[in-house]
Amino acid sequence: MKRHVEAGYAVIRAPWARSKTIRAESRFPDDTKIEGSMIRDIAARTLETDTEFERSKVMETSVVRVELNGYPTSRPEGKKAKRIAVCVLLSECNPTIAKGVPEIMSRVFACPPPTLRSGTRALLGVLGASNHLPKECFVVDMTSEGTSMLAVRKGIAAESASLSEGISSIVRRIAGGKMPEETLTMIRLLANDQCETESCEALSSAIAKTEPELVKMFGDAVGALAQARRLPNALILIAHDDLLPWLSHFFSRIDFAPFTITTRPFVPNALRIADLQSVISVERVPALDSNLAIAGALVNIERQSFT
After folding, report:
1. What CATH number corresponds to the domain at position 257?
2. Does a structural domain hold residue 56?
3. Boundaries of domain holding 178
4. Cβ atoms within 10 A of the Cβ of 287, count?
5. Cis omega before residue 76 (within 30°)?
């Protein structure tokens, strides 16, 4: 018997969506009992004061942390405090994507319009729920068309940046006239010292010519992010499996030490499905990539269906 799709989720990542965390607080003359309406009012005020994102493009808003007297609390309602701060995750999405994705998914899967979530919200949810991932880290999430970089501090998105450089453009730079798919596979073999043919030598030379441009591009972006505060040393990389070995070497070789909290180089780790095993089970889908696993984990977290 066929089962119909009851609900859908679509996780929109860079360059089609971007997110940031905004914060506002209120003070009281005396200890005051915190109510849900107070939190909602402060959250609404944070949105009113933001001038960077266009209201027509906003895809999601969610309260990601509440602090009472400077300390985060997961259950603020009913407690007393003289000071309350609310952190809100705000995400905007390309209007064409925001309109087209629900239409296509509803038509293809015969389901209600899907819930749209940003890649940042999915990552924060997974980082918070996983037993294997750090709560403070620097995330580099590379999609086919762009890269988002996110500093996560105490479980919230603190600083972020986006680059138009993604997997497709990097592979095109390196491949020249060769097939991108073949080049991507060879990049993985070369990074793992499993490639010794003349083609591999040519690829190594092409990578060496391309890397200085990428070093400047990523170096400038990381340096700009670290201007306010140095970045966590734990680096989580999310990208196509074939590109991850090279990407790990790339971030290990670049001297990012001046931009980290400990003034030591990043410690890069590729996000693997095994890191998500506390929030999603994937035994029956061995070919599932990390991005789909993150999306699936988010569904479990939000629907509280994981057992």
Report:
1. 3.30.420.40
2. no
3. 137-270
4. 6
5. no
Sequence-distant (6+) residues with CB within 8 A of 165 are 146, 147, 214, 217
**CA dihedral defined by 165, 166, 168, 170, rounded to 10 degrees?**
60
Q: Residue 58 domain-assigned? A: no
The pLDDT assigned to 278 comes to: 81
Secondary structure (DSSP) of 85-131: EEEEEEEEE-HHHHHHHHHHHHHHH--SPPEEEEHHHHHHHHHHH-S
- Within the chain, what is the greatest distance between any pair of CA atoms? 75
* pLDDT tens readout for residues 200-227: 888 889 888 999 999 999 999 999 999 9
CB–CB of 269/234 below 8 Å?
A: yes
Domains contained in the chain, number? 1
**Cα dihedral sign for 210, 214, 215, 220?**
positive
Instruction: Kindly report, residue by residue over 171-191, the tens digit of the pLDDT.
Output: 988 887 777 788 888 888 888
Q: Which residues pair with 11 in a beta bridge?
A: 117
Whether residue 27 lies inside any domain: the answer is no
* 153, part of any domain: yes
Q: Which residues, at least 6 apart from 169, have a Cβ–Cβ distance to it below 8 Å?
A: 145
